Amino acid sequence: MPVKGLIGAAERTSWLLVAPLVAILAFFLLLPIATIVMVSFWNYNEFTYFPDFVLDNYAYLLTSKVTLATYLKTLKFMVLTWVFCTAIGFTVAYFLAFHVRTLGMQIALFLVCTIPFWTSNIIRMISWIPFLGRNGLANSALINLGIIDQPLDWLLFSDFAVVLAFVHLYVLFMVVPVFNTMMRIDKSLIEAARDAGASGLQVLTNVIIPLSKPGIMIGSIFIVTLVMGDFITVRFMSGGQSASVGRVISNEIALLQYPAAAASAVVLLATVLLMIAVMLRFVDVRKEL
Amino acid sequence: MEPRPRSFWFLAAFFALFVAFLYGPIVTIGILSFQGPQGGLTFPMNGVSLHWFADLFERQAVGDIWGAFRRSLALGLMVMVVTVVLSVMGGLAFRRRFLGSGALFYLIVASLIIPSILVSLGVGLIFNILGWTVHWASSGFGAQLTWTLPFGLLIMFAVFNRFNKAYEEAARDLGASAWQTVRFIVLPIIGPSLIGVALFGFTLSYDEFARTLLAAGSYNTLPLEIFGMTTNVTSPVLYALGTLTTLFSFVIIGSCIVLAVVLRRRRAKLGSDAGKGMV
């Protein structure tokens, strides 16, 4: 059976090609998650953590009022960030895909949008200080314009600053997939809609938005997971005042309460996976490449 | 060409504001890093000087940033090489379905969207339980790969989705072996995209924070060092460092873009000899 033998060889080649990849993902992704699940049932005292099978970590976590408040706060950050990223990301992608006329210009402007993605997030957070601080540019501008007499305190180290920084850091995760989807929309569909008498707004709502949905979904998945798991932006931009799920985990780690941190991480992972599962019902990721 | 609709100008203004929003803050700290020696973290400028840049070169002032920079550079290059090689191999493998390809695809996507703190915590725990010492070049390296590999692979999948298999078939018809086809046909064609993968591999590693945090051990990478500074350094030296490392990133990104453009031009010039032959 020569044909079957041939298929077997191709299959083997594929496996050999992905073997190192599988090894890395197994050891640095699957095993860590399995370890976290395992350790979440372990016990700990002030000095160390040790193998055991206790449900205390979950019991404490799931009955604590703090947990609920933290999740609500994190969800609030997520929803606000998502709303702004989607509105801004869609508008920018729409401009690039449908109003910029040459491909060269599209690529150039697209690169302008993506370059900050390749620079440091921490530096980009720090760079809001001179803007938002008590004596920062925003306050001086508002005072000079006579809009306020006292500098606003809530610009930096506040929930406002957290959401602003999230949008600043993550809006590219919406622009890129939405632009990618829009570039594949067949332009003749838009012409057809125009010929059939649709106004510009009707083309947007009846043709472009429905066809851009997969891109919006992919962007949303990124934003949901990035914001839900964040611990650094919230800590830095709120000046340590706001809580988030990620910060709770990182605080537990800092206190060396690894089993508690692991239980929090498992609950976070379950929450995020649930949200993604819902969103994946609307999009086939493999078709979007 | 039809005239621009009014919506164009509105959207163009929106886009300009968006670009200002993206770049404004970084330009501001670029300017403020030239503060005079007495200057603070905000405007006004208290004179203009290179004082804070000079501070960066004095060991005592800011800790071990040059060591951190060297480590980040080495780690970035390691991650870049592995990301490029494994992404090409994965891209080649995924051109046909194989047993487990669907599951592996979802594993790759999962690697991208899993909250970073889980990778950091999990890798830290494994090393801790096994009694191994976490180090940027072992645990840190692996943790970063879980972030860079999905980007590289997704780019390669997109590249191979648009790849014209006729070239390979032609090579095979002319008697090329499988390896020769890859080496002389496939790799030259996908070459420019590899620059993109390399750029992702290097810059994402160079700036990575969350996944490296608990996996880097006692020697910090540059982003970890910078984050440590934010809690105890309150002078424009932080801005000077931010400006330098952002400039460094810009140089890397710029070189990659230029290289990609040059390669594309050269290919456009040399790529086809149709109509130039003797007959």
Mean pLDDT of chain A, to the nearest integer, reads: 88
Distance between the termini of chain B: 41 Å
CATH superfamily of chain A: MetI-like
CATH topology of the domain at 63-232 in chain B: MetI-like fold
CATH topology of chain A: MetI-like fold
- Strands of chain B, count: 0
Low-pLDDT segments of chain B: none
Q: Which descriptor suits the 3D outline of chain B?
A: globular
| Structural class label of chain B | mainly alpha
CATH superfamily of the domain at 63-232 in chain B: MetI-like
Instruction: From the alpha carbons, calculate the radius of gyration of chain A and give it in angstroms.
Output: 24 Å
Helical proportion of chain B, percent range: over 70%
Q: With helices defined by DSSP (H or I, 4 residues minimum), what is the helix count of chain B?
A: 11
Order of helices and strands of chain B: HHHHHHHHHHH
Through-space gap between termini of chain A: 36 Å
The proportion of residues in beta strands of chain A is: under 5%
CATH architectural designation of chain A: Orthogonal Bundle
Largest sheet of chain B: none
What's the CATH class label of chain A?
Answer: Mainly Alpha
CATH architecture label of the domain at 63-232 in chain B: Orthogonal Bundle
Question: Can you put this structure into words, describing what you see?
Answer:
The complex is a heterodimer of chains A (289) and B (279). With 289 residues, chain A is an all-alpha fold. Chain A is 73% helix and 1% strand. Chain A has 14 helices and 2 strands. In chain A, a hairpin with a 4-residue loop joins strand 1 and strand 2. The mean pLDDT of chain A is 88. By secondary structure, chain B is mainly α. Chain B has helices spanning 6-32, 51-56, 59-62, 65-93, 101-113, 116-130, 136-161, 166-173, 178-207, 222-232, 237-270. Helix content of chain B is 73%, strand content 0%. Chain B is globular. Chains A and B meet through helix 1, helix 3, helix 4, helix 5 and helix 6 of A and helix 1, helix 4, helix 5, helix 6 and helix 7 of B.
